[in-house]
Structure formats: C-alpha cells, structure tokens
C-alpha cells in the first residue's frame, strides 16, 4: 500500500521516475544498434525500489496503465531527439508492455498517436511482451493491438522467450517479429563439447519461423561468441553495457561504435 501511494505520487508530481536504457549490440561486430528502455523509481521514503517489486505492485493496483503511458511519452520523446541527432542510422528503442495495457482495445492507437505527434517512424519503436501475456486471457485484444502496431512498422518482441507455456503452434500464429532468448538459456553457455544447448534449439526454431533473435543477460565474451556462432543476431547484457540513463545514451553509442 505504501508502494502504491508512492507510485501514484510519483506519477502525479512527475518526480522520482527515471528512464534508463540498456544498449543492444549486433553480435557479429559489437555495433550498438538500439536498446531496451527500463524504468527506475526512487521514492523519497522507500528509496530506490527495483522494478521487480514496483512493476507487480503497479499491475495489481492498475497504476501500470498510467505508468506505461509515462514510459511511452518519455521513450518516444527520446527517440525523436536521437533520430534528429542521427546518432546511428536505424536506431530503435524497446519498451516493456504489461498485460493490462494490452487488454485496452485503444492502447495501440495511443502509441501510434504519440509517434505521430513526435514525428517518429514506427520502425524506431519496439514493444516487448512476455510469452505469458501473449498466451494469457484476453489474448484477442492483445493480438489486435499488436497487429495494429505492426501495420505501422512497430516491431513486436517476445520477452523471456522459452520460459512460458506456449505451444509452438500457438507462437507460430502470433503477430511477432523477434524473440528474446532468456538469460537462463545464456548462463550455461558455452555448452560442453558434444552437447546441444537449449539456446541453440530455440535459435533454430526462431529462424525456422522467420523471427529475429536477441539474447539477454550476456556476461562473458564466450557466451557472446557462442550465440553469434549459433546464429543469434543481437545481444544485450553486462558484457556490453549496463542500463544507462536515457539522456546519456547518444554519448554512450558514440564512444562505443
Ligand atoms: O533492470 P531490470 O531490473 O530493470 O528490470 C526488471 C524487470 O522489470 C524486467 O522484467 C523488465 O521487463 C521490467 N520492467 C522494467 N521497466 C519496465 C517498464 O517500463 N514497464 C514494464 N511493464 N516493465 C518494466
Ligand atoms: O525485461 P527483462 O526481464 O528482460 O529485463 C531485463 C533485466 O535483466 C533487467 O533487470 C536488467 O537490468 C537485467 N540484465 C540485463 N543484462 C544483464 C546481465 O548481463 N546480467 C544480469 N544478471 N542481469 C542483466
Ligand atoms: Mn524486457
Ligand atoms: Na527478459
């Protein structure tokens, strides 16, 4: 309850919420291509609260819808600024989206309206949806929202891919562009000689479905090399960069690329 009150206050006063972004690189040459926006919250009394705590609280209280709007407003404004500054061609940012947002039939139109208002191309934005949300109740509204976004060039990534319960037949029919290989499949890499790691099975499957691939939680150069060799295109993890405050992202890319 304290957390809910604090979050509501943060939204009302626009205070204590901050957008970070974790860079993503092309595994073949380590070029930074874009990143994943991650929300941070510092409450005057509770201090810095991790998203693993405040996101579930925001989902339960319904505040996640307003929080999601705050994140989208900020993210799209940053994308507009970065693309005017021509930081790198084709630079994109990914935003995490929660179930209650996707269950609102008007959600996608709200996203597109923000892109238009800021003059940002759909292709500069990606949305990350977990496999659990895609397979969950009210899948109809969710799928319609995602289809609407994709028609405008916004890409849809499945977060935590391989950790949910979806059947392949189901995933195959979803309006998605890419999958994020969960850290739990990256941790055991590189696999012992003569064994087939699950990451490689998932990557083959994704390729077979024509999906783009991003691996998460890469911490060692050996993991990055193994994933590149298995055909994974993009990577994200502490090996390359930790999440950075959004305002420092262009500098981070210029120094890196
Ligand atoms: O660094 P990390 O602790 O930021 O993120 C933890 C979890 O919080 C991740 O699963 C991430 O998807 C989620 N998360 C971070 N920012 C957002 C956000 O803006 N919206 C939603 N729905 N989830 C987020
Ligand atoms: O949305 P998602 O659950 O994928 O959020 C990504 C989470 O993973 C964030 O909390 C982010 O800080 C964290 N993360 C990103 N890269 C690494 C990494 O290399 N190692 C670890 N332990 N966590 C990471
Ligand atoms: Mn994510
Ligand atoms: Na993830």
TrEMBL record:
Ranges for domain EAL: 1-257
Highest taxon of the lineage: Bacteria
Signal peptide location: none
Full protein name: Bifunctional diguanylate cyclase/phosphodiesterase
Organism: Thiohalorhabdus methylotrophus
Lineage, broadest ranks: Bacteria, Pseudomonadati, Pseudomonadota, Gammaproteobacteria, Thiohalorhabdales
Shown part of the complete sequence: 493 to 749 of 753
């Amino acid at each position: 309850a304290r957390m809910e009150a604090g979050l509501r206050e943060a939204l009302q006063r626009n205070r204590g919420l901050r957008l970070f972004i974790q860079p993503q690189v092309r595994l073949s040459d380590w070029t930074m291509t874009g990143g994943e926006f991650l929300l941070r919250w510092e409450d005057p009394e509770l201090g810095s609260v991790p998203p693993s705590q405040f996101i579930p609280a925001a989902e339960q209280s319904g505040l996640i819808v307003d929080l999601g709007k705050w994140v989208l407003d900020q993210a799209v404004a940053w994308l507009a600024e970065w693309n005017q500054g021509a930081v790198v061609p084709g630079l994109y940012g990914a935003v995490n989206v929660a179930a209650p947002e996707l269950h609102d039939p008007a959600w996608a139109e709200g996203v597109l309206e923000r892109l238009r208002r800021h003059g940002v191309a759909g292709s500069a934005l990606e949305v990350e949806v977990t496999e659990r949300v895609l397979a969950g109740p009210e899948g109809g509204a969710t799928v319609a929202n995602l289809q609407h976004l994709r028609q405008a060039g916004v890409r849809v990534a499945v977060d935590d891919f391989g950790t949910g319960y979806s059947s392949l037949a189901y995933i195959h029919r979803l309006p998605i562009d890419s999958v994020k290989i969960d850290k739990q499949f990256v941790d055991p890499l590189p696999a012992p000689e003569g064994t087939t790691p699950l990451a490689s099975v998932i990557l083959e499957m994704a390729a077979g479905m024509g999906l783009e691939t991003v691996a998460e939680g890469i911490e060692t150069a050996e993991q990055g090399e193994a994933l590149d060799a298995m055909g994974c295109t993009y990577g994200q993890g502490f090996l390359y960069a930790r999440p950075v405050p959004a305002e420092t992202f262009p500098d981070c890319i210029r120094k890196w690329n």
